[in-house]
Design goal:
Rossmann fold, alpha/beta, single chain, binds NADP nicotinamide-adenine-dinucleotide phosphate, about 250 residues, two-stranded parallel sheet
Length: about 250
């Protein structure tokens, strides 16, 4: 890995207020990238900006909801006004609303697809004109181990949204790869982050805590390292897919 290929690059990281996104923003900044932090909780983004600046890095906060189509356009425009261009997009923001199909609330399915699938589509479309003009750029989307299986009886909409990300990334790679824009999908398994705390139903929350808060789960920094590995390759190299699972 050649870290200097990231130096000075402008990277948008969505879902940068917690977990894998915050770790990725930190690591990118440590490698010399200028990082635009995106999530809804502005105060968390501001705190991370200060942390990155204190460590000698450069970051700026852009509070936005990735599921809002208009905000994708206005926020990317604001990032370009601030940093000049966008070289890298890390589509990381995501949610999980556990449950099968029987008795489920379709509003949860819509939220899941709006954030996990349409979000990456809106943000990719917004950054692509500049990347295509320059004939260079890289879009990394954080999917899940749930995209690799046959579907998930207890997380149906989540797994379905992540399976859809596979087709989205594959199609986008074939669309823009020939013009110099790289597309990578990263599929982590159990990773210790705050995602369990976002689950409202106590039983499902406890099950997720048990799954993620144990000594065998991966850490957010492990996934950030994989993302940065893909980003730091020579522009002639497209790392198509990185699938990470806990060793034990
Ligand atoms: N942890 C795991 O075991 C695991 C495994 C496989 C895949 N993943 C994937 O990894 C990604 C990151 O998850 P994580 O585990 O780091 O979760 P997390 O700790 O809950 O962080 C999720 C991030 O997404 C942001 N987000 C959620 N909805 C958003 C919206 N509508 N607009 C903007 N930002 C939004 C949150 O910020 P705000 O709330 O401030 O908006 C937060 O920064 C997700 O795509 C997830 O599916 C995680």
């Amino acid at each position: 890995m050649s870290t200097n290929l990231l130096k000075g690059k402008v990277a948008i990281v969505t879902g940068a207020s917690a977990g894998i996104g915050a770790a990725t923003a930190n690591l990118l900044a440590a490698q010399g990238a200028r990082v635009a932090l995106v999530a809804r909780r502005r105060e968390r983004l501001t705190a991370l900006c200060e942390e990155i600046a204190a460590a000698g890095g450069e970051a700026a906060a852009f509070a936005a909801d990735v599921a809002d189509e208009a905000q994708a356009g206005t926020t990317v425009a604001a990032v370009i006004a601030h940093f000049g261009q966008v070289d890298i997009l890390v589509n990381n923001a995501g949610i999980i609303r556990p449950g099968g199909i029987v008795g489920a609330d379709a509003a949860d399915w819509r939220d899941t697809f709006d954030i996990n699938l349409l979000g990456p589509m809106y943000w990719s479309r917004a950054v692509l004109p500049g990347m295509l003009e320059r004939g260079a750029g890289h879009i990394v989307t954080v999917s899940s181990n749930a995209a690799k299986g046959p579907g998930a009886p207890t997380n149906n909409a989540y797994a379905a949204s992540k399976h859809a990300i596979t087709a989205f990334c594959g199609g986008l790679r074939r669309e823009v790869g020939p013009q110099g824009v790289r597309v990578t999908i990263v599929e982590p398994g159990a990773t210790h982050t705050e995602i369990a705390e976002t689950i409202a139903e106590p039983g499902a929350r406890d099950a997720m805590r048990e799954h993620l808060y144990n000594s065998t789960a991966m850490q957010a920094g492990d996934i950030a390292a994989a993302i940065c590995y893909a980003l730091a390759q020579h522009p002639r190299v497209n790392v198509d897919e990185i699938w990470l699972t806990p060793t034990k």
